[in-house]
Amino acid sequence: xxxxxxxxxxxxxxxxxxxxxxxxxxxxxxxxxxxxxxxxxxxxxxxxxxxxxxxxxxxxxxxxxxxxxxxxxxxxxxxxxxxxxxxxxxxxxxxxxxxxxxxxxxxxxxxxxxxxxxxxxxxxxxxxxxxxxxxxxxxxxxxxxxxxxxxxxxxxxxxxxxxxxxxxxxxxxxxxxxxxxxxxxxxxxxxxxxxxxxxxxxxxxxxxxxxxxxxxxxxxxxxxxxxxxxxxxxxxxxxxxxxxxx
Length: 246
What we know:
Blueprint: E1 3-7, H1 18-52, H2 56-82, E2 93-96, H3 97-114, E3 118-121, E4 127-130, H4 132-150, E5 155-163, E6 166-173, H5 180-183, H6 204-215, E7 219-224, E8 228-236, H7 239-244
Parallel strand pairs: 3-5
Antiparallel strand pairs: 1-7, 2-4, 5-6, 6-8, 7-8
Helix pairs in contact: 1-2, 2-3, 2-6, 3-4, 4-6
């Protein structure tokens, strides 16, 4: 069996270094507009360069750059949202999973292809009780994290399992896995599970934790060194789903 860590909502062990991270998130909430302005300028410049006419290979590379800037803008929004913890609770509603998973996969597919990772989503006709934008934030970060860590030639699979009136949305990768001694700390800000290759600042899983806590969705991770990892978020099935299985 691989190492497994559950991230229960409200666990004291998950709040270490939270004050420093919240301060950073509050700063980004205030400065977010100014930080996103240069991104918008860069996106506009790329769009104009492509419309002016460039070689196909150059257009493809500019497309990847544009996608990366769009993701960066969304990550700034996600960080800003974490500073609002403790405010009004999110309004949960009916969220169909299939279009949500498809959109998240489409966002990461160009990057996955560029780095040689096979990304696959197994469709699901299920609906859950959540907040669509916040659940998308969780899945976007889990999928992106898996793609980055899978490595060239790796594989990432996203799928769903029904479990006693709930639905576990899981992201599987066949990357190097996470050492057991690092597993408990990976949801803390700036933790990169020992990586030194420049693949991000280690904020994605912190955003996952904060967002999941706000929604009341437990997050679980299982990992085996040399065999890969499974990250999952568990969400209540929509009432109509429960009725159909009653």
